[in-house]
Amino acid sequence: MERYIGVGEEEEVQLFYYFIKSERNPEQDPLLLWLSGGPGCSSISGLIYENGPLTVKLEVYNGTLPSLVSTSYSWTKVSSILYVDQPVGTGFSYSRTHIANKPSDSGEAKRITEFIHKWLGKHQEFLSNPFYVGGDSYCGMVVPALVQEISKGNYLCCKPPINLQGYVLGNPAAEVGNDYNHRIPYAHGMALISDELYESLKRICKGEYQTVDPRNTECLKLLEKYDKSIDRIYTGLILLSKCDKTSPDCYEYRYSLITHWANDESVQRALQINKESIGEWIRCYREIPYTHDIKNSIPYHMNNSIDGYPSLIFSGDHDFEIPFLGTQAWIRSLNYSIVDEWRPWMIGDQIAGYTKTYANKMTFATIKGGGHTPEYKPEESSIMFQRWIDGQPL
């Protein structure tokens, strides 16, 4: 089983991927491409923590290989999934030559489109399956452009079209200023800052908290006070504590287990990793060379809507990184009429979150108690995805 697909003129960029077939009916079920955010976070994050059929067993690391156990909430119950390490330098993806140009948002949209064409060329039995693109967090900048790129490519000659049917994004970035500016009203709504501080911030910073005029010293002082208030909050899920990552009680301890697993010699042999290609495997390579050339992905959402592609945009409502308030604001800015009013969506007799659907086939959903990615509420996320991909109301 090959693990890499070469893209670029000389196929110098070797993108590593995992492919997992649907457990239901792989011949007919959708094929989902799932990307992790960052940029620079390996798709193993998606596979092991968010929506795959395996996860790492949570136990104290004792020098032996951490074991993988199966999950009950995999999205592969209803769709096949391609997890891709991108951009180059992420996870096990590497370049065979020195790369002259840094990867970028718009460049990735083209590269991943090329990846999909090549992958489908090698696995033609999946050409007719409904194809979806998905991801979370920073992928909100890349996925809408990628959907547009695939859609445009389908009208050109010479390549079999990709059977694109829609896209799904969790807590997606959309426009840096918008996402960041909504953290302060979110912090206020969640009782992390006082009414007084919130009112002063609004009045003196005028709702703009990210790029503050350095002469507005009063606003900067208030922001310092705000930073002190939220300093110990774990931004991925505000219910968790910020703590020492090496402690087994810390939520992020699980990430160190997968790092031990992925760096193990026997694992890399089994995965057929090109040994020369990478040094140490890092779950999220934060310093990855990258050009952020899409500053605002909202116009891409608009174009994809005009082209008729359905989308599911969901938010864990306890995420502080990209709060649902910011996501709701840009969805409102698209100005589509509402076809299904705000209502709870249920699992059995329990409220799992809230949802509304717009005339552009965009469904927005919250996951009650959820965080920055599906990993914090995997069962609920999985049921939400299954309903949406099968065309049922949530």
Automatic annotation (TrEMBL):
Family: Belongs to the peptidase S10 family.
Molecular-function GO term, any one: sinapoyltransferase activity
Keyword Nucleotide-binding: no
A biological process from GO: secondary metabolic process
Protein name: Serine carboxypeptidase-like 7
Chain segments annotated as transmembrane: none
PANTHER family: SERINE CARBOXYPEPTIDASE-LIKE 7 (PTHR11802:SF505), SERINE PROTEASE FAMILY S10 SERINE CARBOXYPEPTIDASE (PTHR11802)
Gene3D superfamilies for the chain: alpha/beta hydrolase
Keywords: Disulfide bond, Glycoprotein, Secreted, Signal
